[in-house]
Amino acid sequence: MTILVTAATGHLGRLVIDRLIARGADASDIVAGVRTPAKAADLAEKGVQVRNLDYDKPASIPAALEGIDRVLLISSPEIGSRVPQHTAVVDAAAAAGVQLLAYTSCGEALTTDFMLAPEHKATEEAIHASGVPFTVLRNVWYIENYLPNAAQVKETGVLLGAAGAGRVAAATRKDYADAAAVV
Which domains does the chain have, with CATH numbers? Predict the structure, then answer.
């Protein structure tokens, strides 16, 4: 089984690849889809296949999906551009006949008023319409997102945020990577 991890040189992508290998996947069965292959030299040294896959260059995506059985579509960080970027991967996955497409969405993407949810919802709708078997991963919030606030808290004793009286479920990227590797 060949597994493609998109955005493989990002924080989550690297962790997913590490967790796949730790769980017994052969590194040669893992494909790192990356915008800049030179940044994935360390992955190639582990035996991971590195292929160019640039969300902003849809023509790069079909070749990256050749021979792929499963795809982990890691959400793009580019707010406002995600829907066409993700849809290009979904369409290429359908055309390639992948057996499973997993997607790192957000919690309650279909019902929440969280400002990032509409792009995730639109991606999920594209996945549903594609006919590709899928799993949606509900990555709610990365604990690491709070790290930039640590200096402020240390200096002022106050943690500022936009949650108001709301509650935020969070986990580490490693925890989310573990879940993705299982899927």
Answer: 3-142+172-182 (3.40.50.720)
Half-sphere exposure of 18 (CA within 13 A, CB side): 14
Give the separation between CA 127 and CA 174, rounded to whole angstroms: 25
Q: Both ends of the chain: CA-CA distance in Å?
A: 13
Residue with tokens 């993705």: 180
Instruction: Please identify which residue in the block is written with the tokens 């967790």.
Output: 19
CB 83 within 8 A of CB 122: yes
SS3 string, 84-131, reads: HHHHHHHHHHHHHCCCEEEEEECCCCCCCCCCCHHHHHHHHHHHHHHC
- DSSP assignment letter at 71: E
117-157: per-residue pLDDT in tens? 889 999 999 999 999 999 999 988 888 888 888 888 888 98
In whole angstroms, give the CA distance from residue 172 to residue 33. Answer: 22
Overall size of the chain counted in residues? 183
Distance CA 162, CA 58 (A): 35
Q: Is 38 exposed, middle or buried (0-12, 13-18, 19+ CB in 10 A)?
A: exposed
For Cα atoms 22, 25, 27, give the angle at the middle one, nearest 5 degrees.
95
